[in-house]
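Q: Mind making up any chain with structure tokens?
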Amino acid sequence: MGASLLRLHFHDCFVNGCDASVLLDDTSNFTGEKTAALNSGSIRGFDVIDTIKTQVESSCAGIVSCADILAVAARDSVVKLGGPSWTVLLGRRDSTTANLSAANNNLLGPTSNLSALISSFSNKGLTTREMVALSGSHTIGQTRCTSFRTRLYSEANINASSATTVKANCPQSGGDNNLSPLDITSPTSFDNAYYKNMQIQKGLFHSDQVLFNGGSTDSIVNT
């Protein structure tokens, strides 16, 4: 669940800022972001945020935003899984609307190339180094077979042994929703194994392995 909350937070922030718009259901006035191509069937943890919000409201009603709850929950999830802690500044305000088209246009898919990653993060004011660092969140969590099947069966820069292991749970046809860990080395620990996996071609997503494929970000991954 920790990985789900971290992903939920990122998918919220990368659209129109950290405003909890990703939590909103469809209304008669707008279509929410939950059904965006990279959110549908992917992001989870809504029930956890609902539970936290209910408990917080019972103690101090109308004070703490869902956006702040989501930011703190993401941080605490990383800490719980052995990762670093950081100070979360509070005071975010919740959005009263959502933007499906922005979610579809801003969230990057698992087949993204390096230039697309660099450009997209740059548009958010983030450097290439910060992009590589944030990609390291893939050291935890799972993903559906349909998200990486093309890489698994079509790309050459993938570790043969790990590919064989993953193929057992992700056949060429069927099993679209079968889950595999993004980090096959230590899937429930927030560590730097994600980067070590890149060095030996064990990146599950195409958008992961492009970070270490003879390009400009190789040195950052090594660091």
